Amino acid sequence: MTKQRKLLIGCVADDFTGATDVAGIFAKSGMKTTVLIDIPEGGLSIDADAIVIALKTRTIASHQAVSQSLAALRWLRDRGAERIYFKYCSTFDSTANGNIGPVIDAMLEELASGFTIACPAFPANGRTIYKGNLFVGDVPLNESGMKDHPLTPMTDSNLVRVLTSQTKHRVAACYRDTVIRGAADVRDWASKAEADGIGVAIVDAIADEDLEVIAQAFADAPLLTGASGLAFGLATVLFKDRRNLESRPGYSNTVGSRAVVSGSCSVATNSQVEAMLRDHEGFKVDVASLASGEDVVSKALKWAAGRLGRKPILFYATANPEEVKANQSRFGVAEAGEMVESTLARIARSLVDLGVSELIVAGGETSGAVVKHLGINRLDIGNEIAPGVPWVSAPLSSGQIWLALKSGNFGGREFFVDAWDRIQ
């Protein structure tokens, strides 16, 4: 009988795109990785190096986010997870009251630990931290498109200030001049910071090499928090002398249709929608039509009849910041978002029933709604399309479905057009 491997990392992700993002990083590094949608019921046993539990906690009430995150942590610890990784977005986006800080506080208390780090850097996607400030490409976070995010606008690039407003712990920044001196110096800095009463450290990183140093420094910590970049560093350290040992799920769809469902209004996704519409047909989901009671789902599916095939078609609620703000002012922030997510999820469910077997979903909230409507509870990691976005597969009663759950900010301009070439 083959001995079951140790669960090296148990990861709690605050949205579904983030879960596939970090799982793709672990899998690419050689770890046998499983993604679970929500916390399983019963005594499920999984042979894996890394298990990622995908939650939908980024924008819900803080007390609910804490409760769900702790339940996921406990499930992972019960299965022997040697370390816990709390994964959030590389743009550190959250509501005014959390939920990054409250979840970190609760996890530290649960693990009886007084110190952890927060490092959302992801250099491969242009997310870097310098002097405690988060940059998106060449601009500070608060000058990027994230300042206009419809649910979690980010108006401050200084992560010490952002996190201090959310946590009960003191927060300080470990600058890059310490990081470049190596893991031992980072550990020394952390020991002194903890002795001085610091509970969470924002750690600078502007290159992958920085992330490896940080991972080396904190490889034995019971709790690490960050985006997929730090997960890359940690996986590199843990699997330094190993290669991709596990086979990826094989592509098995020989027939079926392709579609894109986009609920994100990020700058990157707006550009991707625009690029796809140059040579593909698209159906726009209008918030005002939803609010008026129009049966947009039926209208969309009628439009899709005769258009579904191997050439992808697009369903999108993408809008510019002015249009988004106008809709939120008129219909309410939460209400407008919920209408869009629910509608796109119902469209996606119906598209799968009509034979769509390869589906790209853009936007964290939209991805969560779609996966739940499809009744998926486990995902296998396939090929990487772009940094942070792998193809994933799942079994359905109608056959295998391939999904790309894309964070709104990820991917190049031609993502919706070129992603299909990476599925095999």
Number of domains: 2
> Given the helix and strand composition, which structural class is it?
alpha/beta
Number of strands: 18
- Which segments are poorly predicted (pLDDT under 50) over 5 or more consecutive residues? none
**What would CATH call the homologous superfamily of the largest domain?**
Putative sugar-binding, N-terminal domain
Query: CATH class of the largest domain, please?
Result: Alpha Beta
In CATH, the architecture of the largest domain is 3-Layer(aba) Sandwich
Number of helices: 15
Distance separating the two termini:
32 Å
Helix % is 25-40%
Beta content: 15-25%
Largest sheet features? 15 strands, mixed
What is the radius of gyration? Answer: 21 Å
Main sheet: strand order: 9-10-5-11-4-1-3-2-16-17-18-15-12-14-13
Mean pLDDT reading: 91
User: What's the shape?
Assistant: globular
* CATH topology (fold) name of the largest domain: Rossmann fold
